[in-house]
């Protein structure tokens, strides 16, 4: 895979490049910021290693420019400046990691592997396709446990296809991904390597044409095209929404007394301040109650309640004195929180923040349909961004990356097919839902070949379209096992109900005494941890798992009330894959889980 090294210290970069080439990477080197920017514009990189102090254009500016133009590859900054101010500048500019010079080569390459692993592309467990396996750690390829001897380029070709099973690669795209800038071959060499790979696979009795030619486009791993004939009945869809809402409402009614008990614990501090009888134990209990309210109320549909509880928690951390100002402030916050809980029942709340949930880009000039679509989407926490034509859609994609694209077209003409192919190649993880006017096999095949994920036959109602988007996203998470560990049973109940609607299989744990046995038995695809828990905190659990060979690649997300940079940086440093703040909109959490699962999807067998 391809890495760009940017540093004006040529001997150092040459040594690093040689080390990476030995590990099967293609490497380019740029010695100033402007040259590096030209490389980024010309080629697709899986990772950029970038010095901060560069001629012509410094590393921070180059990092910021890359992110502003929509480039998503991981960026690792190198610098001789070891202070928090410079590190914060780097992270704010869009860097993913930060290494201080002088560095150890083994540590730096380990950091590179970690970044590529977080992006879900490389250094996975064994890759599989039916009975064929490829082990990136040993560079061994086997079919039915029999070793297949491949040349380095044949191995790289097979790995590229296995990691991107649905993507079509032209000969030029293969060259761009597998060869460095200094020694690119002609396209005939790609055809020769693919022919050699096919011959060796056939000799090992791998099924014929495992790597298929898509005429006029390139090559891809063979998979049968699938068509969606599912047209959910609107009644069934509405019933699903009703059941989901009823379950959340029922959970709120069950746990509301617990919330009021926590509120009473805080109120006891106010009373103690008035009587000048406040104890350390009473204040600590109230702070713990405010902490849990801040984390759980938002998941039950009370985001303002979580914000008020967070202010209360901060107030209860400080030393309190029995003065009028403190009592008045505490009394007002308690009154606001009580009103929020008592007079805003969950089932009447519809103000979901769309930007925090799933985002849908719709390309369609039927404004009435789009407006109805947006209204339906809001009830599921899906935000809709509209482009009335392809030109607007292309502009939006420069600065905005949706979770799903919905494209409504009469017939898949060349302009639409080219747009879909470019979109799929640049953002292979974004599903493309297409509404076609004609029920024509040729046109359906054309859409599928350009990266279409789901085909809907016109006419389609807004309810059917959003139901199909939900179904597609739920399918992404279908069967995926997610384990959540938090000492707040109320929060766990709310998250379990909310996330099951997205197709996940959930296990929630609030007793750390059963954590390890539950982990082994459940064997999750993804783990969500709180930071503050009794006995063992989330950071320690993450470190424990990262030190275990069996669990070190398990995706881990932190879900916590801690917003400070120090805690977040610490979480990523010990191996976290993502970091989210409470209170969390369930749709946002589902979105982050789906993205993480999609990134590691290529690690698993089809």
UniProtKB/TrEMBL annotation:
InterPro entries: CheY-like_superfamily, HPT_dom_sf, OmpR/PhoB-type_DNA-bd, Sig_transdc_His_kin_Hpt_dom, Sig_transdc_resp-reg_C-effctor, Sig_transdc_resp-reg_receiver, WalR-like, WH-like_DNA-bd_sf
UniProt GO cellular component terms: cytosol; protein-DNA complex
Known DNA-binding region: 124-223
Span of domain OmpR/PhoB-type: 124-223
Claim: Cytoplasm is one of the keywords in the record: no
GO molecular function: phosphorelay response regulator activity; transcription cis-regulatory region binding
Modified residue annotations for 4-aspartylphosphate: 51, 530
Domain Response regulatory: 2-116, 359-473, 481-597
CDD domains recorded: REC, REC_OmpR_CusR-like, trans_reg_C
Keywords assigned: DNA-binding, Phosphoprotein, Transcription, Transcription regulation, Two-component regulatory system
GO annotation, biological process: regulation of DNA-templated transcription
Top-level taxon: Bacteria
Full protein name: Multi-component transcriptional regulator, winged helix family
Organism encoding this protein: Stanieria cyanosphaera (strain ATCC 29371 / PCC 7437)
């Amino acid at each position: 895979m391809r890495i760009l090294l940017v540093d004006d210290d040529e001997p150092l970069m040459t040594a690093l490049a040689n080390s990476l080439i030995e590990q099967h990477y293609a490497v380019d080197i740029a010695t100033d910021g402007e040259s590096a920017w030209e490389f980024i514009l010309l080629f697709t990189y899986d990772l950029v290693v970038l010095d901060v102090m560069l001629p012509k254009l410094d590393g921070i500016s180059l990092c910021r420019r890359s992110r502003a133009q929509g480039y998503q590859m991981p960026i690792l900054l190198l610098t001789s400046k070891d202070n928090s101010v410079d590190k914060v500048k780097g992270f704010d500019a869009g860097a993913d990691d930060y290494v201080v010079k002088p560095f150890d080569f083994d540590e730096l390459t380990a950091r590179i592997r970690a970044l590529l692993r977080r992006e879900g592309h490389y250094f996975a467990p064994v890759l599989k396709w039916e009975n064929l396996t490829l082990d990136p750690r040993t560079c061994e390829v086997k079919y039915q446990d029999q070793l297949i001897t491949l040349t380095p380029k044949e191995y790289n070709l097979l790995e590229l296809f296995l990691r991107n099973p649905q993507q079509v690669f032209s000969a030029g795209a293969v060259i761009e991904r597998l060869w460095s800038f200094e020694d690119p071959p002609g396209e005939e060499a790609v055809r020769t390597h693919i022919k050699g790979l096919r011959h060796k696979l056939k000799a090992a009795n791998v099924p014929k044409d495992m790597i298929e030619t898509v005429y006029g486009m390139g090559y891809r791993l063979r998979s049968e095209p699938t068509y969606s004939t599912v047209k959910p009945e609107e009644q069934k869809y509405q019933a699903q929404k009703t059941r989901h809402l009823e379950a959340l409402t029922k959970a709120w009614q069950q746990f509301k007394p617990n919330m009021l008990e926590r509120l009473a614990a805080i109120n006891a501090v106010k009373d103690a301040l008035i009587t000048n009888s406040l104890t350390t134990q009473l204040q600590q209990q109230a702070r713990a109650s405010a902490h849990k309210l801040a984390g759980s109320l938002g998941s039950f549909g009370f985001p303002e309640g979580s914000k008020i509880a967070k202010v209360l928690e901060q107030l209860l951390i400080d030393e309190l004195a029995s003065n009028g100002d403190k009592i008045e402030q505490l009394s007002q916050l308690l009154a606001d929180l009580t009103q929020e809980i008592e007079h805003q029942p969950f089932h009447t709340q519809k103000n979901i923040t769309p930007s925090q949930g799933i985002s849908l880009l719709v390309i369609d000039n039927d404004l009435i349909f789009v407006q109805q679509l947006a209204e339906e989407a809001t009830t599921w926490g899906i935000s809709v961004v509209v482009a009335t034509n392809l030109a607007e859609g292309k502009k939006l994609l420069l600065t905005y990356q949706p979770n799903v694209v919905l494209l409504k077209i009469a017939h898949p003409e060349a302009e639409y097919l080219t747009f879909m192919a470019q979109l799929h190649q640049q953002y292979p993880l974004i599903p493309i839902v297409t509404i076609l006017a004609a029920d024509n096999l040729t046109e359906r095949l054309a859409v599928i070949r350009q990266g279409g994920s789901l085909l809907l036959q016109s006419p389609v109602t807004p309810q059917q379209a959003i139901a199909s988007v939900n179904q597609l996203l739920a399918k992404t998470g279908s069967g995926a096992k997610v384990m959540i560990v938090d000492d707040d049973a109320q929060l766990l109940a709310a998250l379990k109900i909310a996330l099951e609607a997205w197709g996940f299989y959930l296990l929630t744990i609030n007793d750390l005494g059963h954590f390890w046995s539950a982990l082994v038995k459940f064997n999750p695809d993804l783990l969500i941890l709180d930071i503050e828990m009794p006995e063992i905190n989330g950071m320690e659990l993450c470190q424990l798992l990262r030190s275990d060979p069996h669990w070190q690649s398990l995706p881990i997300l932190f879900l916590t009330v801690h917003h400070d940079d120090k805690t977040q940086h610490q979480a990523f440093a010990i191996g976290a894959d993502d970091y989210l703040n409470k209170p969390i909109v369930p749709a946002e959490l589902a979105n982050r889980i789906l993205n993480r699962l999609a990134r590691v999807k290529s690690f698993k067998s089809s």
